[in-house]
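Holo model, adenosine-5'-diphosphate. Inputs:
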Amino acid sequence: MTLSSVLIANRGEIALRVIRACKELGIRSIIAHSEADRDSLPVRLADQSLCIGPAPAKLSYRHADALIAAAQGSGADAIHPGYGFLSENADFVALCETEGVGFVGPSAEVIRRMGDKIEAKKIARRAGVPTVPGSDGAIADHDEAFRVAEEVGFPLLIKAAAGGGGRGLRVVKAAETLAGDLAEIMAEAEVAFGDPSVYIERYLTDIRHIEIQVVSDGTTTLHLGERDCTVQRRNQKLVEEAPSPVIDHETREGLAKAAVALCEEVGYTNAGTVEFVFDNATGEYYFIEMNTRIQVEHPVSEMVTGIDLIKLQLNIAGGEKLRITQNDVRIRGHAIECRINAEDAERNFAPNPGTIQGFRAPGGFGVRLDTHIESGSSIPPFYDSMIGKLICWGQDREEAIERTLRALSEFTIEGVVTTAAFHREVLNTETFRSGKFNTGFIADYMEDRPHDHR
Ligand code: ADP
Ligand code: ADP
Ligand code: MG
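Output:
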């Protein structure tokens, strides 16, 4: 069975990305959108659009019943959730399963197990995958927190089991604040994620974030190499690249094997990402979490492998088996992605919603722009501030950097302040060019940032 129509339960650039893949596969695309996105490009480019509710995501993009009803009413075979919103919501996927609506992603059961970061770490250990030293499970009380703290030392990291998107993490520097921090983060996790469970990890200070893209049809699990997402601000990714500029062949193979072993352990299907932190000092790596969905930065893997990940997702959801083997996956050249956000770097990256007055997209060889923005687009205040991604390919890292800088210099967005200029600054630093940095790079850079950079 292949899919004949898909309901897209998302917005913005990822909705457009899925519509494009559907068109190329001859799949009818139906977009479920909020009132705020009525005039958006994805709504105009989809084969059909259904307004499912008001702007707040809870009443539209996160409204499970409305989405299921829209899928059933329009005769969609499956729902593509994109990223964010309901993409990793096991209850929603379970509802799809009982209502007979397909889901482009793994089963509800797999999402439930891997979405709980504590459970995911246990599964990783069972699969022989190294994890960051820390508590064995959820922290039951203060006594246990202090006991674990004695083992892992300070600073340590308290993490919400249900956290995501860089939220639900708290660094604790010393024993004095441990009890207070623990209570606070548990209360925050309850409000933000509906689950107060937290766990503790050693806080590693000189690390890179390296993740493996995996894809499985339920029988065969392949990996598409790594992405290096070390350039982060407040635990959120800003720039991603493939391949990693630092790891050697042995580490690369080790990471990939670990990711595939983990997927096989849980019976993973569809596309997913296994995230690791890599210790610069020792060269060791540790599993941190798995994202059971397509990720924002998937295009860098597409650019270096030539494989369309969204099409793979749709084909797998339609019951097809992979037509490629691990040997067919070849990494060629280097790709860099800059997340362009409607945020003001001069005001502590405050979101900057508004209307786009002028828009000129960069172009040329090796330049890819994934965005739903055009002149006249509105950036509503209700959603994530990411308005697009610039992805540039080069024969090597050097060329990819020069091409990205060239593309950024052509790129004009008027009407809202974006982070495009900040990306030029970052890519121009000696540190970024050297490839040798850690997840503290942006924080360090902001401390010493010259004032005449604009
Ligand atoms: P990726 O893991 O694909 O690199 P992010 O971690 O930035 O991307 O998350 C993708 C999007 O999903 C972001 O808009 C982020 O805010 C959102 N997101 C991810 N996980 C959660 C979560 N558990 N709760 C709320 N939003 C989330
Ligand atoms: P999220 O679900 O929000 O993406 P992750 O567990 O993936 O959370 O962690 C987000 C980021 O936080 C990582 O990319 C890394 O930069 C940092 N981080 C996570 N675990 C640790 C750790 N044990 N020590 C230091 N930094 C960490
Ligand atoms: Mg993560």
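The pocket of adenosine-5'-diphosphate (ligand 1) is lined by residues 83-84, 164-165, 236-237, 291, 295-297, 384 (CB under 6 Å). Residues 5-100 form a domain with the Rossmann fold fold (CATH 3.40.50.20).
Archived with the compound record.
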